[in-house]
Amino acid sequence: QSALTQPRSVSGSPGQSVTISCTGTSSDVGGYNYVSWYQQHPGKAPKLMIYDVSKRPSGVPDRFSGSKSGNTASLTISGLQAEDEADYYCCSYAGSYVFGTGTKVTVL
Amino acid sequence: EVQLVESGGGLVQPGGSLRLSCAASGFTFSSYWMHWVRQAPGKGLVWVSRINSDGSSTSYADSVKGRFTISRDNAKNTLYLQMNSLRAEDTAVYYCARDVRALTHMDVWGKGTTVTVSS
């Protein structure tokens, strides 16, 4: 199972919006509504931010939103804040789990 | 508090073995599927293995199939990963994670344990 494709990095100024794409195939992202997104700060464990494409766990700010179109899922961070600077990984059901390549979000 | 705590990592020579443990607390461990996910230095997350709630079904990434064995002891609230024939490319931080609904998403993660395979 090949890793899902994410941009290596995205950046934005505080208050702006950034969107991270996650491209897979009809066997993973496109075939199921089980895309999740994880935030990881350096040296820390991943944290669930979005599940089932667009649902937010309790405690995750509504600045984080998810969507999907065809074989591509997206994570949007609106009103970017300094603490949002981290690595982000998408993940999809594909018989097992397949992760994305990861995107570093930089707050300028 | 819902918590997962990994242990058992360390330095091992190529070809050696290591057993990782993941102690669960704060939830009914026996009700959840569990996973191991690893992250090589400076690299991304990679799914390694999963086990269903009663331990009767397991699955592995191709890269570890035949070398790693996942298991669990629900009486001890503990998940295990037996790693044999270790290679340099197995060097990584290993995380255990709780699955919410059988391969939909992982909502609780441990802090990880580091495995280094080197001579």
Describe the structure.
The complex is a heterodimer of chains A (108) and B (119). Chain A has 108 residues and is mainly beta. Chain A is built from no helices and nine strands. Chain A is globular and about 35 Å long. The model of chain A has no long low-confidence stretch (mean pLDDT 96). In chain B, strand 7 and strand 8 (78-83) form a beta hairpin. Chain B contains no helices and eleven strands. In chain B, strands 2, 4, 5, 6, 9, 10 and 11 form a seven-stranded mixed sheet that branches. With 119 residues, chain B is mainly beta. The model of chain B has no long low-confidence stretch (mean pLDDT 97). At the A-B interface, strand 3, strand 7 and strand 8 of A face strand 5 and strand 10 of B.
Quick tags:
heterodimer; A: mainly beta; 6-stranded mixed sheet; 3-stranded antiparallel sheet; 9 strands; 0% helix; B: 119 residues; mainly beta; 4-stranded antiparallel sheet; globular
Summarize the structure.
Chain A contains no helices and nine strands. Chain A has strands spanning 9-12, 18-23, 35-40, 47-50, 64-69, 72-77, 86-93, 97-99, 103-107.
Q: Give the beta-strand count of chain A.
A: 9
Rg of chain B computed from alpha carbons, rounded to a whole number of angstroms: 13 Å
Could you say which overall geometry of chain A the principal axes of the C-alpha atoms support? globular
Q: Which sequence of SSEs, written as H and E, runs from N to C of chain B? A: EEEEEEEEEEE
Structural class of chain B: mainly beta
Compressed to H and E, one letter per element, the order of chain A equals: EEEEEEEEE
N- to C-terminal separation of chain B?
39 Å
Main β-sheet of chain A, in a few words?
6 strands, mixed
Structural class of chain A: mainly beta
User: What is the helix tally of chain B?
Assistant: 0
Name the biggest interface: A-B, 24 and 21 residues
